[in-house]
Write a structure and sequence with these properties.
By secondary structure, this protein is of the alpha+beta class. It is 20% helix and 41% strand.
Amino acid sequence: MPAHRTQIKVYYEDTDCLGMVYHANYLRYFERARTEYVATGGREIHEWNALGYLIIVYSANLRFRAAGRLGDVLEIVTTHQARTPYRMAFLQEARRGAELLVHSEVELACLDADRRLIPFPPILAQGGDAG
């Protein structure tokens, strides 16, 4: 699947006392963008959950290059890579125009209803249409 793009406007509630995006809020932005990315494959996250696939964050790594500011419209660019049948990584960037603000790599794992590790369904791991 090609890169997915999500627009996020920075509101006052997103900023710290310096008027910059509070660092933890990028995790929220990236989560929203991953959710939208998965939905473009034909199923929402809650539908995968109902089918018995519980998707969890295994690790998250963020690198900060520049600060988003109050009023900015950020573009979150999302791609993914299947790492193993049990793990996939989402590579995400927060950009203000051409400027890279934050780069992240978030690895996800998949659990069954009993919270045991299971492989991702192939269609989800490949980023294809689940319809």
